[in-house]
Specification:
Radius of gyration of chain B: 19 Å
Largest sheet of chain A: 5 strands, mixed
CATH class of the largest domain in chain A: Alpha Beta
Shape of chain A: globular
Radius of gyration of chain A: 15 Å
Structural class of chain B: alpha+beta
CATH superfamily of the largest domain in chain A: Beta-grasp domain
Distance between the termini of chain B: 53 Å
Number of helices of chain A: 5
Oligomer: heterodimer
CATH architecture of the largest domain in chain A: Roll
Shape of chain B: globular
Strand order of the largest sheet of chain A: 2-1-5-3-4
Number of strands of chain B: 14
CATH topology of the largest domain in chain B: Uridine Diphospho-n-acetylenolpyruvylglucosamine Reductase, domain 3
Largest sheet of chain B: 5 strands, antiparallel
CATH architecture of the largest domain in chain B: 2-Layer Sandwich
Strand content of chain A: 15-25%
Helix content of chain B: 25-40%
CATH topology of the largest domain in chain A: Ubiquitin-like (UB roll)
Structural class of chain A: alpha+beta
CATH class of the largest domain in chain B: Alpha Beta
Number of domains of chain A: 2
Helix content of chain A: 25-40%
Number of strands of chain A: 5
Strand content of chain B: 15-25%
Largest interface: A-B, 30 and 30 residues
Number of helices of chain B: 11
């Protein structure tokens, strides 16, 4: 099995990590870099709870080999609040009660951050599409969609 | 945990083909990874070497012109294809089909070439590519060849790709002027799901009295299928409902749905009829 030295920027910090070829980005974030925001749940691309931003695009980190992230910029939920100040999306999630157990929250917040960056005033339909790959088993989708729409209003 | 394998990322097609020659059946090609990583984890087939094609520049090419049609490199992601103006302008059926694959995040990685190379009977892009009469461009160290997408699928999860051969791009010719196309998919949930049945259609008003219709189906046979026999029915100049009454029994003979976790055989057969009628009514009116 091959080993690779990869360089990536994680939450704004340049990191160099030696990884085995069969380790996923999710595994390296959680085990080598101690970032447990991305969750290891289904690990087959269904639940979306391992979502991270790669070059500002939301992707499922369980379906990406760590070596594929070489040279890329990765953002996890740990990189969203700046100096302890929550982002508008995070604040709106709290206001709307858009979480119960919280397990899907990092993924949903990251998907929302990416959506509002590429489309600052999305329709309800566009919000729903942006989180279609993220499963919430506490059935809180309405609050999540409301929170994202409200955060969009704040930003524009 | 994934099984053990080596990872290589060649920079040119020639290098990729050399690696394929060297490793043969022990190698798997990696583009978006949204099917490959899942199958690795399930240990369906364990390769010794995974060859990542994303460092090959040529495979990222996405182009359109009226004469040559749409050219989609093997590493072009589905979301990039969907954002490309020419896709929605000239190929509505491809747009509608591709936008139902996986979910938004999957489409940020997944590729069109990967969707057909995985050769799932449920591949949503396949009915679209079938009615658009796309060709698949292949390369091996022995040379290059093109295969009509209709001849590309060889069975469940099987294609005509030879050992050491790869898909470099998919070419989609511009449909006839004035044609209309669309894709309908039945699934169990509103969000991400594989097709219970998928139907792609393309309707062109011909200069004579009748219309030229192309129909293709996903999830109702070992491979995605084109309903060539049934299509001939529509050459007659009769009301659509009458034509459908004649065409549906022929479509039903073309497909051979199975019962699985997503739906029963009878249910699928019924959906074939319902979706075909619904799709053609939609495409007919505006003609």
């Amino acid at each position: 099995m091959s080993r690779h030295e990869i360089r990536l920027t994680v939450n704004g910090i340049d990191r160099t990590v030696e990884v085995e070829s069969n380790k996923t980005l999710l595994w390296v974030l959680r085990h080598n870099l101690a970032l447990t925001g991305p969750k290891a749940a289904c690990e087959r691309g269904d639940c979306g709870l391992c979502t991270v931003l790669m070059d500002e695009i939301p992707v499922k980190s369980c379906l990406i080999l760590a070596v594929e992230a070489d040279g890329h910029k990765v953002t996890t939920i740990e990189g969203i609040a700046k100096d302890g100040v929550l982002s508008p999306v995070q604040r709106k999630f709290i206001e709307h009660g858009a979480l119960q157990c919280g397990f899907c929250t990092p993924a949903a917040v990251l998907a929302a951050e990416a959506l509002l960056k590429r489309n600052p005033s999305p329709t309800r339909e566009e919000v729903v599409e942006s989180i279609e790959g993220i499963l919430c088993r506490c059935t809180g989708y309405r609050q999540i969609v409301d929170a994202i729409l409200d955060a969009a209003k704040m930003k524009t | 945990m994934l099984p053990k394998f080596d990872y290589v990322a060649p920079k040119t097609i020639e290098e990729t083909l050399e690696l394929l020659d060297k490793h043969g059946q022990d190698a798997r090609l990696l583009a978006g990874g949204t099917d490959l990583i899942v199958s690795l984890r399930a240990r369906e087939r364990i390769p010794k070497t995974v060859i990542d094609i994303k460092a090959v520049k040529e495979l990222h090419e996405l182009s359109y012109d009226d004469r040559r049609g749409l050219g989609v490199g093997a590493a072009v992601t589905l979301n990039r294809l969907l954002r490309y103006d020419a896709t929605s302008k000239h190929f509505p059926v491809l747009c509608e089909a591709v936008s139902t694959i996986g979910d938004y995040e999957i489409r940020n990685r997944a590729t069109l070439a990967g969707n057909i190379c995985n050769a799932s009977p449920a591949a949503d892009s396949a009915p679209a590519l079938l009615v658009l009469e796309a060709t698949v461009n292949l390369a091996s160290s022995k040379g290059r060849r093109s295969v009509p997408v209709r001849e590309f699928f060889a069975g469940v999860k099987k294609t005509v790709l030879a050992r050491s051969e790869m898909v470099t791009s998919v070419n989609v010719p511009t449909p006839p002027r004035g044609s209309r196309s669309g894709y309908l998919k039945a699934r169990r949930t509103v969000g991400e799901d594989l097709a219970v049945v998928g139907v792609g259609g393309l309707v062109t008003s011909s200069s004579k009295s009748g219309k030229a219709v192309r129909l293709a189906y996903a999830s109702v046979a070992p491979t995605p299928v084109r309903a060539l026999e049934a299509e001939k029915t529509f050459e007659k100049d009769e009301p659509l409902d009458k034509l459908l009454d004649q065409a549906i029994p022929i479509v039903t003979k073309t497909v051979s749905p199975i019962s699985d976790v997503r739906g029963g055989r009878e249910y699928r057969a019924n959906l074939v009829e319902v979706l075909t009628r619904r799709l053609l009514r939609r495409l007919w009116e505006a003609n």
